[in-house]
Amino acid sequence: MNYKYITIEGNIGAGKTTLATRLAKHFGAQLILEEFADNPFLPKFYEKPQQYAFPLELFFMAERYKQLKEMLQTQDMFNNFFISDYLFIKSLLFAKVTLKDEEYNLYQKLFDIINPQLLQPELLIFLNAPITRLQQNIKDRNRLYEQSIPDSYLGNLQDVYMQYIRQHPVKTLMVDTTKVDFMKNPKDFDRLLKALEQDYPPGINYF
């Protein structure tokens, strides 16, 4: 294993937490999962997005920063292995979709102040899934407040994720989830484990 800090990312319903949990269990890594359920604005946002978008995104950014700061900065990175199911930049990407221009400009200023204080992952595994699959996964996990998420919102999130990945030299392993099933097909998971033995160059690397 060439990495000490790996992040799994993808759109809503892509399977980030499931894969992160399985990888952490396999490697005996410390698992960092986003605590989205603690955000009191989340159900309200899906009902009235314009009214609750700004407090929603501020809460998420504060909680993500606190969690990553506590778990990563206080640990010995040379003696620990971390796997998380979110990037901190996720805060800014979602805000770009949900906030009005003046709100986003303020949000970005706050983000730019605190982002440099955090360690960044050495490898990003991005789970790329079509909207139809995302909606089916959202339906299957049956979180009530997610059931009315429109395709357009998922599409906008997908666009900002891909724009970020293309424009930033992040070491990224791009996974087409229509061709693999890490939970049901052991061969797919074994192939991923072998892929993690490679030292990828910056940019997009296809799995």
UniProtKB/TrEMBL annotation:
Domain of life: Bacteria
Molecular functions (GO terms): ATP binding; deoxynucleoside kinase activity
One Gene Ontology CC term in the entry: cytoplasm
Cross-referenced InterPro entries: DCK/DGK (IPR002624), Deoxyribonucleoside_kinase (IPR050566), DNK_dom (IPR031314), P-loop_NTPase (IPR027417)
Domain Deoxynucleoside kinase: 6-196
Alphabetically ordered keywords of this record: ATP-binding, Kinase, Nucleotide-binding, Transferase
Record-listed ATP binding positions: G10, N11, I12, G13, A14, G15, K16, T17, T18
CDD domains the record matches: dNK
EC number(s) per entry: 2.7.1.-
Pfam families: dNK (PF01712)
Protein name: Deoxyadenosine/deoxycytidine kinase
Native species: Chitinophaga sancti
Lineage: Bacteria, Pseudomonadati, Bacteroidota, Chitinophagia, Chitinophagales
